[in-house]
Amino acid sequence: MKLYIADDEMDVREGLKYLIDWEKLGFSFCGEGKNGEETLQDILRLQPDLVLLDIRMPRLSGLEVVKRAKEADFPGKFVILSGYSDFAYAQEAMRYGVDYYLTKPIDEAELEKAALEVKESLLQRQKEKNTFAQYREKAKNTILSDILLDNTNYSFLDLKDLSLEASAFQVILYSNYNQESFHAAWDFASILRLANKNQNSLEYIELDNRNIILLKTPFALKRFQELLKHYIAQPQKGSPLDTLFLSYGRCVYSVQDIHLSYEDALSLSKRRFFCQPEQHVLGYEVLPEQQERHSGFSRESSAYSQLFSDYIQTGNRTLLSEALHGLEQDLYYSTETVSAIKRYLEDLLIQVKAHLTHTYSSTQIPFPSNTAIIDTIEEQYYLYEIMHFFHLQFEMCMNALGAYSSESVMDSILSYIRHNYRENLRLESIAPLFGYNSSYLGKIFTKNVGQSFNSYVDQVRIEASKEMLRSNQYKVYEIAELVGYKNVDYFHKKFKKYVNMSPAEYRKSLFGSEPSA
User: Fold this and answer.
1) Beta strand pairing status for 77-82 and 50-54?
2) Which parts of the sequence carry 4-aspartylphosphate (predicted)?
3) Do residues 54 and 98 lie in contact, with contact meaning Cβ atoms separated by under 8 Å?
4) 462: enclosing H helix or E strand
């Protein structure tokens, strides 16, 4: 605490300095005055906590010093020093808020007691002031939180008291760029305050464990955009900004609309999953329009798994890449949570694995276990990481199936038919997989194979059915379905056409009877 001594006699001033151990009491000497005018100027400038003041001073009396200091809202304490004959003056000074009156010659014990009581009073006032400031700050944060959540009666707000008398607002959320970090995020609010030359241009709030900044002047909004353009969007490696991830909402122009900017920033912070590599910022400009969003998923995972399986088997990397991009776009516009999207992708990849390993049961395809697929996808923070994982798995599959080294497209087509004869194979659906239209593919197929597409498919199916008939494990109607014929009568017709006998006759020729149920 600071001590100021004022008396027109130097000996008195020096004596007061050493009469008691001021340092031990917690006071440090900050100045002295020899007349009232000088004393008034000093105490208003130095703002001491305690002033020892002689009541009789040249130029301005001690009484006038006290009066003018109090009128200027001086918060310090006064101890009046006077002779016995000045008691009437002392009484008047007490009415101006003087705390103690001591007569000369000053008694050491009385002075120390007065100093201690002043100190206790000052400490109590500071404690009350700090407590009030804490409650005020807490109340302000509560009000700001309610404004962000649009949960307040705006007509009762004192915008001036809240320092919200501004013409523009914008909300920013920030967190660690490294999502595995448990350390507190770098204090971006302080960075912005420094950039704004410490003007009262922003508020910092913590809400639901989120770091929130409310910019509240056009200058602050403009300064943020400048920082965004030059330093934040592509921060220097190793800099504080390189450790941060930001999302910011739209600019709004009334307190009642602040919640809209917050909702933008909050939605964006939840969409970090869709960020690209090294992307540190998401702005309201990239939020999908509401009419573009769709609940659920635009395609069942089984539809995508069939598509991917077809492109992998045909080695069509172009269409495979396009399909993966289409999947990524579908997910971008979905309103589903990140957890739901991950489960969808896990299911999709497991379905592709099941389809290919079943179709190519004799080929070793290097798929991870289902548990490894789930764990790998769950561990990723971004969609692009999962899409990269899909690319790697699909490329390994194509390499294992030899789709990349077929001697001709026709070899790939024949291989595809031999492995997928159980499906509803049609020229119209297969042709695009290999980059042809169905009419042209039908012509070159017949020319190269010596029979039509449908005839070749029937032949493959009949050969497979003969193998099953020889195994003596299935009934004829079961075999019909297993080789791709939904109608058992149609299967009979085709079988007889190619084998010159019915399936039952063929089996009887081998075993003498149908298998028992």
Assistant:
1) parallel
2) 54
3) no
4) helix 453-471
Whether 516 has a pLDDT exceeding 60, the answer reads no
pLDDT for 2 = 93
Per the confidence metrics, is the pTM higher than 0.90? no
103 φ, ψ to 5°? -95, 150
Token output for 110: 């009385």
Residue type, 187: D
Question: Using an 8 Å Cβ cutoff, are 159 and 256 in contact?
Answer: no
pLDDT of 308 strictly over 90: yes
pLDDT at residue 404 tops 70: no
- Residue keyed to tokens 């639901």: 208
Residue type, 42: D
Is residue 340 within 8 Å of 383, Cβ to Cβ?
no
Q: Establish how many alpha carbons lie within 13 A of residue 441's alpha carbon, considering only the half-sphere containing its beta carbon.
A: 20
Pairing mode of beta strands 170-176, 210-215: antiparallel
Contact 80, 90 (CB under 8 A): yes
Give the H or E element holding residue 45: helix 36-46
Residue labelled with tokens 């899909």: 390
Lookup: tokens for 143? 């009000």
Closest CA to 267 of 280, 252, 285: 285
Sheet of 2-6, strand order: 28-33, 2-6, 50-54, 77-82, 100-103
Helix (H, G, I), strand (E, B) or coil at 292: helix
Cα separation of 375 and 365, whole Å? 20
Q: pLDDT tens, 347-356?
A: 999 999 999 9
Give the residues across from 446 on adjacent strands. none
* H/E run at residue 464: helix 453-471
Q: Which residue has the tokens 């999953």?
A: 273
Give yes or no for a contact between 60 and 71, defined as CB atoms under 8 angstroms apart.
no
